[in-house]
Structure formats: structure tokens, C-alpha cells
Design brief:
Elements lengths: L2 E4 L2 E8 L5 E6 L10 H6 L5 E5 L15 H14 L4 E7 L1 H12 L6 E5 L9 H9 L1 H12 L6 H11 L4 H13 L13 E6 L7 H10 L3 E6 L6 H4 L1 H14 L1
Parallel strand pairs: 3-4, 3-5, 5-6, 6-7, 7-8
Antiparallel strand pairs: 1-2, 2-4
Helix pairs in contact: 2-3, 4-5, 4-7
Length: 253
């Protein structure tokens, strides 16, 4: 299994290696893991390596005493250096979108493009979610089918996702959503100068289409893809449509 070390702690990642100096790095959302990107790891077929990370305290990665947006950004930078990448496209879902925006504003020279998936320039989280992840995790898990997925999404996809979500400690999920709740770069996104692909499910209840439209209206070199019959977990719900959008975006860069 591939790992790298960050301050003595092992960080897990999955990789489909194609081009050793070029990669698309996929970063998951709150309480998730690299599992989120299983359909992208095997099916993109691009002239780029495809990498998906388990953020600290998620999946197979090691534990940290305190999670923060700065920690996540620094871990991504450490992985880019570890893999000796010279051309990087960052793709982030939800919290992952906050991470890649923050990374870009800190290291713009290291980023060739951004894929903003089901995310926003501001990610205020409802008190219901914050309270449930802190005080009643079972209630949070029960809310996932209606909160994160389109109503007609296959039960198998939803159940498999929930099985993965149960593996993350509630305090980690709560920390992630708390990071999202404090995130706000609405006044900065107009300064993004690299090509951006914005992807969102038409029926996303957590980061609605208007969040993605804000990116489209404020990032000069951007394109917006709204995928029908999908919710917040669009990359799992509609992988073919998602991958086609990514493939076409990358091939035009």
C-alpha cells in the first residue's frame, strides 16, 4: 500500500500511475476517504496519473491531535513534493473543494487547474448537521440518503457509502464540518487564474447549484457542468457523466 510520511505520521493514498510528473489529485469531503473516488481511479484514462488521498485521521491515514484546514493544505503540499510532481490538477469535493481553493491561494504557481466538485466559496453548515455529528452520530448517518443523494439513486450506492462513512470517527466528521462552516473565500475567487471545471449535481441539497454558479460568474477561465439526477455525491451517483466532464476538461488544457 502506498504511504508517505508527514511529520512522522503515515498518510495513505491510492494511485493509478500513468505519467510520473503529471497528476490529478482527488481530495475527498467531510468524513470520507479516497474511496469516494473509486470510479475515477480506474476509468479516467488520461495522460495523467490519478491520485486519491486519505486525509489525516481518515481511511488508512494516521491520527492527528487536531485537524485544521492549514493541516490539510500542508499535507497536500507534502504529497506533491513527495511524488515529485511538476504539473498538478487539484480536484476537491465539498471540504476537498475548500482545501484546493486554499491550496491555490497559498501555492498558485504549483497548480495547473482546479476541479471544484459539489463545493462552494463559502460552506456554511447547518446547525442540525453540526449538532448531530457531535451528539448523535447515528442520526447523522440516517440523514445521509436524503441529504447527500438524489432520491432515485441506487440503494446499493447509498448503502456502500454509508458503510464507509461509519468507519470515520464522529469527532473527525464533526471537525471536518466545523472547518467547512468557517470557510469563506467569496471575495477571493475572482483572483483564480488557472482553468477551472465546476461540477455539481442538479439535486445537490448540501452545496446547491447556486454555489457553483457563483464560481462560474466570478472565475474568468471556468466552465460549469450540472449533472442531472445526481445529488451531493455526484461522482458516485453519475460516474460516467462526471468522468466525461473531467476528461474533456483536461484534454482541452
Amino acid at each position: 500500500m502506498p504511504f508517505f510520511e508527514y511529520k512522522g505520521i503515515k498518510i495513505f493514498y491510492q494511485i493509478f500511475e500513468k505519467e510520473p510528473t503529471k497528476a490529478i489529485i482527488f481530495i475527498h469531503g467531510s468524513g470520507e476517504s479516497s474511496y469516494t473516488w473509486k470510479e475515477q481511479l480506474v476509468d479516467l484514462n488520461l495522460d495523467y496519473s490519478v491520485v486519491a488521498i486519505d486525509l489525516p485521521f481518515h481511511g488508512k491515514s494516521g491520527d492527528f491531535k487536531k485537524l485544521s484546514l492549514d493541516l490539510y493544505v500542508d499535507v497536500i503540499n507534502n504529497m506533491i513534493e513527495f511524488l515529485s510532481l511538476r504539473e498538478v490538477i487539484l480536484a476537491g469535493h465539498s471540504l476537498g473543494g475548500a482545501i484546493i481553493q486554499s491550496y491555490y491561494f497559498k501555492h498558485p504557481e504549483k497548480v495547473s487547474g482546479l476541479i471544484l466538485c459539489s463545493t462552494g466559496a463559502k460552506l456554511r453548515v447547518s446547525k442540525v448537521i453540526l449538532n448531530a455529528t457531535k451528539n448523535n452520530f447515528e442520526e447523522f448517518l440516517e440523514s445521509i440518503p436524503t441529504g447527500a443523494f438524489y432520491r432515485k439513486t441506487s440503494k446499493d450506492i447509498i448503502e456502500e457509502y454509508i458503510e464507509e462513512a461509519e468507519k470515520t470517527e464522529p469527532k473527525v466528521v464533526h471537525a471536518d464540518f466545523s472547518i467547512c462552516d468557517k470557510f469563506d473565500v467569496m471575495k477571493k475567487v475572482k483572483n483564480i487564474r488557472v482553468p477551472c471545471l465546476i461540477i455539481v449535481g442538479k439535486f445537490d441539497n448540501l452545496t446547491p447549484v447556486k454555489y457553483s454558479q457563483y464560481f462560474k460568474d466570478n472565475i474568468e477561465n471556468s466552465e460549469l457542468v450540472v449533472i442531472d439526477k445526481a445529488g451531493h455525491m455526484v461522482m458516485l451517483e453519475k460516474p460516467q457523466e462526471f468522468n466525461t466532464a473531467v476528461r474533456e476538461f483536461v484534454e482541452k488544457m
